[in-house]
């Protein structure tokens, strides 16, 4: 394989990976930074580490320089003809050509490494976001992900006493829904109301009360709440709708439970 072919293939690969890297980076940083969601609750997992900011800016700038250098060299050599390429390789520019090729391969590998890590980071961020399928990327530039939604409930305060938390449920479906909320320990948590009915667009406040038994705080990430909902016909009650329903619920979500002392906040 000739040096010219390797340079062209490496340049194209570098630019393709670079475009993917820029797209993924923009979507992540636009959502996280613009919405100030630098970490996720309740365990404050860092979604975007500061080191990736420096790596992204550094390698993006270097990739741009190497790509422009590649385009200049390829255009210059093609304009001189294939015979001139062989003559050019045999002249004093051989060392410069090898140096250029090594830089190109190195930054292609660096761009691929960053692109893979940003893809994994995007997947991690996606776990804390609503699904979004924009038609065009520019439509998603400002709001690639719509907003964070809760995957956990954190009880913050004096965990040796009684703590209350409010869970908001909103019916975003196109029909009337009956819901119920369950927990793994009825002696630890009280749910009011535990069942109810929601019309389209309606929101209900579910009050959850945690009571610590014998001053022994349960371990975080061991309990969860389950929220279930099914379609409910007009005139039905929550109890009646669930009694007449057969099969699994139409939708469900599990919310992990975390405990945090107020002094740690």
From TrEMBL:
The chain crosses the membrane at residues 12-33, 54-75, 95-116. Keywords: Cytoplasm, Cytoskeleton, Membrane, Transmembrane, Transmembrane helix. The keyword Transmembrane applies. It holds the Pfam family Motile_Sperm. Residues 129-260 form the MSP domain. The keyword S-adenosyl-L-methionine does not apply. Central component in molecular interactions underlying sperm crawling. Forms an extensive filament system that extends from sperm villipoda, along the leading edge of the pseudopod. This is Major sperm protein. It comes from Steinernema hermaphroditum.
